[in-house]
Amino acid sequence: MTSPSDTLTSKDVRELLSNKYILILGDSVVRGLYKDLLKFSNVDDFLTEEELRVKGEKRFYGDRLITGGIQKGLTNGIDYEEVREHTAGGARRIRFYFLTRCYSSYMKNVIFNDIKNQAIKPDIIIMNSCLWDISRYGIHSMRSYQRNIDRIMGSFRQMLPDALFLWLSALPVSNASNG
């Protein structure tokens, strides 16, 4: 049994992430992590299933949709874009980019350029890209995925040597998944 002192609260999360820039990169599973972090840090509660399923909305718990999603009428596919950002009065910044491939022209030309042009660099990078990489890009996608992981790690190491990089493992896939 846990005591109240063992329970993580929204106040704990806000203090832990105070004065941090967190960059979150990935697919809909990672978007769920981003949204869960925003909601929990605001109201000590987790996403509902309905909140988890909504994508590309203009606002969610104080964040804003920067580009993509409903602004471009996009719903699904390898060209889907969604960039979201939440700032807390300059004390915390969390940015999310939807990815369908871990290393791509989008990563090089959009995300890396955004990072280079920002005065404040990410302190923490949280990333996962796997299922889209190995299932939507042809017969050599697994080999390409392995090379792309090396590229992305090397690029971030060179560009942001002091950032904490967290690579999330892919969860088991349902046989009945669609999307």
- Strand order in the sheet with the most strands: 2-3-4-1-5-6
Helical/strand content category:
alpha/beta
Number of H- or I-type helical stretches: 6
User: Biggest β-sheet, characterized?
Assistant: 6 strands, mixed
| Mean pLDDT over the residues | 86
String of helices and strands: HEHHEEEHEHHE
Detailed description of the structure:
The protein is of the alpha/beta class. The protein has one domain. Helices cover 36% and strands 18% of the residues. The chain has a six-stranded mixed sheet with strand order 2-3-4-1-5-6, covered by helices on one side. The longest helix has 19 residues, at 141-159. The termini are far apart. The mean pLDDT is 86.
Can I get a quick summary?
This protein has helices spanning 10-16, 28-43, 49-53, 105-117, 131-135, 141-159; strands at residues 20-26, 64-68, 82-87, 92-98, 124-127, 164-167.
Secondary structure: elements and pairs:
Elements (H helix, E strand, L loop, with lengths): L9 H7 L3 E7 L1 H16 L5 H5 L10 E5 L13 E6 L4 E7 L6 H13 L6 E4 L3 H5 L5 H19 L4 E4 L12
Parallel strand pairs: 1-4, 1-5, 5-6
Antiparallel strand pairs: 2-3, 3-4
Features:
alpha/beta, 6-stranded mixed beta sheet, 36% helix, 18% strand
